[in-house]
Write a structure and sequence with these properties.
7 strands; 3 domains; 51% helix; seven-stranded antiparallel beta sheet; alpha+beta; 14 helices
């Protein structure tokens, strides 16, 4: 088993068609088994192989009400299979006498299946032993590193413009395909004439990402907070791309046109990616606090609470929307609750009014989830408007022995950013922090 995983991980050997088919089938079966097990554990549903052929809305409709851990777990489970597919495809393309840069089609919906089918039947090409890259007689010139860094940064900035401004999507092509391509271009350009250590490629790739982020910041396309939140996702993917680009260069595949042509896969991937593939699952966040008072005493402070005077935690000082106060216009079902945040007010029509037990409301209008850190006053990237949608909320008051109350805060929201599992982790954490601030304030008011 260890040998099998080592075979999937490296770029060491060529892979012929029969091996590509056998390993591909093994990966599909193991991946499906893990997906089905996770879905069954989280939802109790049997995810059949036919579900993979269903439309995106139908697939995600089955995951409504899934526990918070399911989407992140599915995303993490996918990563090793993604990398195994990349390594096998690179080696199969080389074995078939094709450019290893065909592998970039792996990121393009529909075309990726066509790529795998073609490589599964192409015969092996006659082996042409390429001479190993000669050791450079002098240290790598700084210009080679600079070219790799600048080219990678321009790929990232260009795809940000295409994906967000043209296609209006924060897609897998942007957060997965683009960082991989950035790393691959940096690793290839750095090592095609002056092969070096992978650590040097890692350093240059990291600089490329910082440069791309700096460009987005300087032109006011993004603020510091969102760029920082994206880095834990895009940097590791970029390092995998750098590993592939360096491996291609070290194998003697040094022609530039195929590498440049492969970059066209990114906008094609954005165009073919299903529209609104995310944002179809209603995620729930629940936070609890115990209060040393009976539900009847807690209830008035849940309906409306005085301005929160406690100092802001660091996360709110960085710009995340901070709750400030709540007031009620009217009484009972049909009344409107206004929850004031540092970025504006949530408008919440009351849908359930059970004094001392339950208060539920819809959210018909919500402000931006954060205020970007930027020297510019007008930074408002599209993802601040409608990509994280709060749909409804609820407070539940559960009586406990000794005249105590367990106060529960519930929020249901949709998230239209890919990969949804990653952004859900961040969104759940931030909403928990918002809940904590409100519930702790109510606890202090009551006690």
């Amino acid at each position: 088993m260890i040998g099998l995983f080592r075979f999937w991980w490296t770029f060491s050997d060529r892979v012929d068609a029969s091996a590509y088919r056998a390993h591909g089938l093994a990966l599909v079966l193991v991946k499906y088994g893990g997906d089905a097990a996770l879905v069954a554990l989280g939802t109790g549903l049997l995810w059949s192989p036919l579900d993979y052929l269903s439309s995106v809305p139908r697939v995600f409709a089955q995951l409504q009400g899934a526990p918070a851990w399911l989407f992140p777990a599915l995303a993490i489970w996918t990563l090793p299979f993604f990398w195994a597919g990349i390594t096998l495809t690179v080696r199969r393309a080389i074995d078939a006498g094709r450019s290893p840069w065909w592998t970039m089609l792996f990121f393009v919906p529909i075309l990726n299946y066509g790529l795998m089918l073609v490589l599964a039947v192409l015969p092996s090409a006659p082996r042409r032993e390429r001479p190993a890259p000669a050791e450079p007689s002098q240290p790598r010139p700084s210009w080679t590193t600079s070219i790799g860094v600048i080219a990678a940064a321009m790929v990232g900035a260009g795809m940000m413009i295409i994906s967000v401004s043209v296609f209006k999507e924060y897609s897998l092509a942007l957060f997965f395909g683009t960082p991989f391509a950035m790393g691959a271009i940096a690793g290839f350009l750095m090592n095609r004439q002056y092969p070096g250590e992978y650590l040097d490629t890692v350093k240059a790739t990291s600089i490329a990402f910082l440069l791309a982020a700096g460009l987005m910041f300087v032109v006011a396309a993004e603020g510091a907070i969102c760029l920082l939140m994206a880095m834990p996702l895009v940097l590791p993917v970029g390092m995998l791309g750098a590993y592939m680009g360096r491996a291609i260069a070290l194998r003697g595949e040094q022609s530039m046109p195929p590498a440049l042509f492969a970059l066209l896969a990114l906008p094609v991937a954005s165009a073919l990616e299903p529209s609104h593939a995310t944002g179809r699952v209603l995620h729930e966040v629940v936070t609890l606090v115990e209060i040393q008072a009976a539900p009847e005493r807690v209830w008035p402070h849940v309906v409306a609470f005085q301005p929160i005077t406690e100092p802001l935690d660091l996360i709110f000082r960085l710009g995340i929307a901070a709750p400030q106060s709540a007031r009620l216009d009217g009484q009972g079902v049909g009344a409107t609750r206004y929850c004031e945040f540092s970025t504006g007010a949530f408008v919440e029509p009351i849908t359930a009014w059970e004094p001392a037990r339950r208060l539920a409301f819809d959210v018909v209008r919500s402000p931006s989830p954060l205020r970007e850190l930027s020297p510019y006053s007008n930074v408002s990237p599209p993802h601040l408007d409608g990509y994280l949608r709060s749909r409804r909320g609820e407070f539940r008051l559960v009586p406990l022995p000794g005249g105590r109350t367990r106060l529960e805060g519930h929020t249901w929201y949709e998230l239209e950013m890919a990969p949804e599992g990653y952004w859900q982790l961040l969104s759940d954490y931030l909403i928990h922090r918002i809940h904590d601030r409100v519930l702790d304030h109510i606890k202090r008011e009551v006690e």
